[in-house]
Structure formats: structure tokens, C-alpha cells
Amino acid sequence: MNGIVVGADQRETGAGRSSGGAGLGTVGRTLGVLADTWTLLILQRAFLGVSRYAGWRETLNISDATLTARLRSMTDDGLLRTRPYREGGRARLEYRLTERGLDTWRLLLATWAWERAWVPREVPLPDIVHRECGRSSDIVLCCAHCGEPVGPQDTAVSISGAVAGRGGLARVHPRRTRGRLPDDPLSLLPGAMEIIGDRWGATVLGACLVGVRTFTDFEAHLSISPEVLADRLRRFVELGILVRTGDHGYRLTEKGRAGFQIHACLVDWANRWQAVDGAPVDLDISHRACGRSLRVRLDCVACGAPFGRGSVEPPPGTAGA
């Protein structure tokens, strides 16, 4: 992202959902809703057909307390809706993705593609198979308006107010511990979850993509404690997302720049759905070539056709798990 336009602070125009909170804009609210490892893994399994409590508990090896809390917050945030059913003579609830939840598919696909491409694994992630052409493929992020491929160098960013809410992010979205993550290779995404499964990791990556380079500048732009910032920068260096520079700064590697696809999908979802609830747009990515706000389209590298919500073949043995 080569340009940053900073505008005046915008006022809150509507009530947010439970994980939103007054004072936060679209991206600030979304960090609290989606930038959480367990939330993303629950969404992943919901797309693979899991809809009942026992299904998530068994496939993710997640504790009852964590699963109960996440299902409640995801329902409150409009990602899931409940539907009653009876089993063994007892009334129970199952959970179905709402339109808002279904629209996270681009973020999940971009996360999967980044992990598969950039993180060495003993057990490789399954291929992305495009149903329309039947081939294993990768994704390319394109502008839905003009159809051209888009990378960070092709964009400019407009920031209105403070994306992290100048303290609001930490206050409204208190840190949620991950606990022990699943051993299942399908749900083990250690690299990607550092940059999207953690609200501060996602915030730091976004700052890097708009050109923030030094510790002092990160502190000036983000509502983040020095200890947390130092930890995230250290982890990003260890993962090869950042490298240190001779001027005591940090620079994105090719691996880090590839995280733009995840970041763009997060911002796109935020501005689609949180604005509906009255949150002001706090960060907008525009495509320089066509001059319009970036709306993400993910195309198949093998055939060139766009992916759709239902056009990714589920990994073998996972559908309805």
C-alpha cells in the first residue's frame, strides 16, 4: 500500500453488536469479532458441515468453557443463528451460519492459502480444489469492480480516526486466551493464526502494510502496550514475516507482504457488515487503477474464474464432520 490518506475523526452513527462497542469503527469492531483463533476454527468447521456442540468439541478438542463462550459471542455478533432440535428426548440447539457468517468465506480461504503457501509443515494442508474446473489451484486477489489483480503496491489507504480506537480495542475486546490448540492438521494453522487469529497481530500487520516501520511509529499509531508490541514484532521476525533493518526498524518480507490477501479480506468484510450496524468506516483500501474502494474477488489461478462461496471442494473426509 503506497499511499495513506488520514481524515478527520468520524462520530459513531449507530449501535454496535455485542463485540462492537462505542468508539470503534468497522475494522476496530471486526478485530474483536473475527481476529480470534477459536472463532476462526469454529467458522472453518461450520463451513465443513459441523452445526452441533459435540461436533466442534470432538473435531477441535476445545474445552467446554471456551466453546460455550465462543458460540455465545458468535451468535450475539450475528455470525451464527440457533435452531432447536431434539435428541434423546431432550431439547438442544444447533448453530447455522448466517449470511454474515457465510460471507467470511473469502477470509477463511485467503488464510488457508497463505498458510499452505508459506508455512512449512510435517503434514501439508490439503490442496485448494476449484469445483468449477476440478483442478488444484491457488488464489489470486482481484478487484471485483475492474477484475484486475491487486497487491499491496496497487492500493492506497484512507484512515478516518484511530482504527484501534486509541485504547478502545483493549477496553472493548479484552484478551481471550487460546488455551491448547487442536492437534488435527486441518485446524493447526500456526503461522496464519499469528496474523489473523490474534487481534494485535492483525493490527500490527495492518500497520506494516501501510508503511509503519519503527517501534516508535507503531506506538504512535496503535493503542498497544510496549510489551505486547515487542512480543508481536519478535514473533513476526521469528516467523519470517518481518526482518529487522539497520535503522532499528522493521520491513515486511515477501511472506509478510503476501499477508495482504488476508488483511484485504478482513477489511472488506468489516466494511460490508459492520457499517450495516452503524459503525463508521475507519479504514478503506482503494484500488489505484480504477480509483474505487477495493471489493475483494478471489480468482482461481488454474482457470482464471472467480471462486464462489460454494466452489471450494471440501478436503476428503471432512464434509459434515
From TrEMBL:
<feature type="domain" description="HTH hxlR-type">
    <location>
        <begin position="184"/>
        <end position="278"/>
    </location>
</feature>
<dbReference type="InterPro" id="IPR036388">
    <property type="entry name" value="WH-like_DNA-bd_sf"/>
</dbReference>
<feature type="domain" description="HTH hxlR-type">
    <location>
        <begin position="25"/>
        <end position="123"/>
    </location>
</feature>
<dbReference type="InterPro" id="IPR036390">
    <property type="entry name" value="WH_DNA-bd_sf"/>
</dbReference>
<keyword id="KW-0804">Transcription</keyword>
<feature type="region of interest" description="Disordered">
    <location>
        <begin position="1"/>
        <end position="21"/>
    </location>
</feature>
<dbReference type="GO" id="GO:0003677">
    <property type="term" value="F:DNA binding"/>
</dbReference>
<dbReference type="Pfam" id="PF01638">
    <property type="entry name" value="HxlR"/>
</dbReference>
<protein>
    <submittedName>
        <fullName>HxlR family transcriptional regulator</fullName>
    </submittedName>
</protein>
<keyword id="KW-0238">DNA-binding</keyword>
<keyword id="KW-0805">Transcription regulation</keyword>
<dbReference type="InterPro" id="IPR002577">
    <property type="entry name" value="HTH_HxlR"/>
</dbReference>
